[in-house]
Amino acid sequence: MEMRPIEDWLPLTMKEVKKRGWEEIDVVLISGDSYVDHPSFGTAVIGRIIEDEGFKVAIVAQPNWQDDLRDFKKFGKPKYFFGVTAGCMDSMVNHYTANRRLRSTDAYTAGGESGFRPDYATTVYTKILKNLYPDVPVLIGGIEASLRRVTHYDYWSDKLMPSILVDSGADMLVYGMGDQPLRDFLKLLKKGVPFDSLKTLNQTAFLQPKEEKLPKNKNWETVELASHEECLEDKMKYAANFKVVEVESNKLQANRIVQEVGDQRLIINPPYKTMKEKEIDQSFDLPYTRMPHPKYKKRGQIPAFEMIRFSINTHRGCFGGCSFCTISAHQGKFIASRSKKSIMKEVEQVTSDENFRGYISDIGGPSANMYKLKGIDESICEKCSSPSCIHPVVCSNLDTNHSDMTNLYREIDEHPKVKKAFVGSGIRYDLLVDDITKNNEDGNHDEYIEQVVTRHVSGRLKVAPEHTSDDTLRVMRKPSFKYFHRFKEKYDKIQDKHGLKQQLIPYFISSHPGCEEQDMANLAAETKDMGFQLEQVQDFTPTPMTVATVIYYAGVHPYTLRPVYTARTREEKQGQHKFFFWYKKENHNWIRNKLMKADRPELIEKLIGKSGQKSQSFKTGKKHKKTSASNKPKPMPKWLEERRKKDQQKKSR
Fold it and tell me: What is the CATH T-level fold of the domain 459-540+569-653, as seen in this structure?
């Protein structure tokens, strides 16, 4: 295959700039990731939008912040501004595990090597730029800036931090997906509006002196938060602040938010309405090469790119509102779906890749089965401020008809170059359970599940019940585990009908707020009884801008301000995590001692047997013989039924 000219990528060097015949750069982007020119990578999307608006843009990918700073100087002073992002992940999540241990790899770096970006990358990069070019505006964005736009708890330093605008010294912040604010921002700059006059642009945040009047916008009401200093003094005020921020973030017509911090005032303008089909198509249809920049050839593959290289992103946003998840805080609660035409155009591009072997690794989004789902009557949505459309119940105004997805999958299936197209990004199974979700009168949910199970599962289907305890699940904003049983029944029937033996892989979290050690023991016993030997498990990591993180820090739920138990010490967190691995012999004594102290002998027998040995149906190095999803679900065991009755009696008292 003929090599593409270097001009097909956005320039990374002055040599590439000169090849384009440019004498000056309008906008320089600084990114914490290696540069991959693909619509799944934020820097590429932002760069291509800037280019599409007629500006000359260059990228500094993973600059060295520890030498003479030549990387920051190589393009000189841009005409309009510097744009800064830590990359596709918060740099602290990228660097550290839930136990605050340094990770040895970085999926967004060529060769998978760690160490190519600093901690708190957005702040570090911005400070360097403001020192080198004090008169050039800096606009920050990406998930790190977005989720740190207001007073937030930072798990890695174990303290409350002010808006990232304060520590970084940036002039303005774009939060959420930047497509809409950036296009309007660039259009105004092109008309000659000065950077520092752009104070009433939606989905942006900035600082101004406290004594200054608020910029005028007759369409906005203003909500004031407790100041950063008040939050430092009183955790309850911090928790109450979060509720305001989340509620405003999830409205179709939101208010402006202000917060005092020191002698300044933080101003967060309301978000844009959800992107329309034409707008999101415009972002995905830009002229990406869909490949890493050629400079990385000798350094090795970029793991994150290899993972999504042959995948298709169908939509953005998630209306699940899970307490531990940042997706709705960044991408929005309402779903922005691409047109089928745009998606099929990308399928054509993917299948034309010389390395494509007939398999699309994923058709999906944050939750694969939310494509095209939205409110039936938008006027009802406009009055709603709920963080979730499906918790505590599925909204009666939510159209959960899955026909558009089923039809899309079938059309992709029919493409002559596609042998198999997988749904790898996980599905919300509760949207497919009749007990809690309507819209299945014509059988569209059943048709969707059958299509997925028979055509789009790569040996295993991932779903995320997250826990078995109803109390913990309520804090998580997830449905009762009984609905997972219902979904598994449907799944198993389809498996039996078609003679399939594909595993159902459930994801679980330990140490989540609201979860106690006994809840983890019950989780281990109930999932063992269902035939699962758990693999896809994780320990809760507090990340900025989530309900669960507020509870972890403040000890109370931000919506009720009532206390919620949370495992905080390393010992408590590791203890909960151990219950996932009850089948490991080295955990048996620990489990026995814990459950004896808790007066739960029935769980000891259930998990490790009377003598503390493994159940005979498990053999070292082999999976439980019942992990095949074709096994029919067993009725609820007696010990669990009795336990749930006791729990119910406690609650009623």
Answer: pyruvate-formate lyase- activating enzyme (3.80.30)
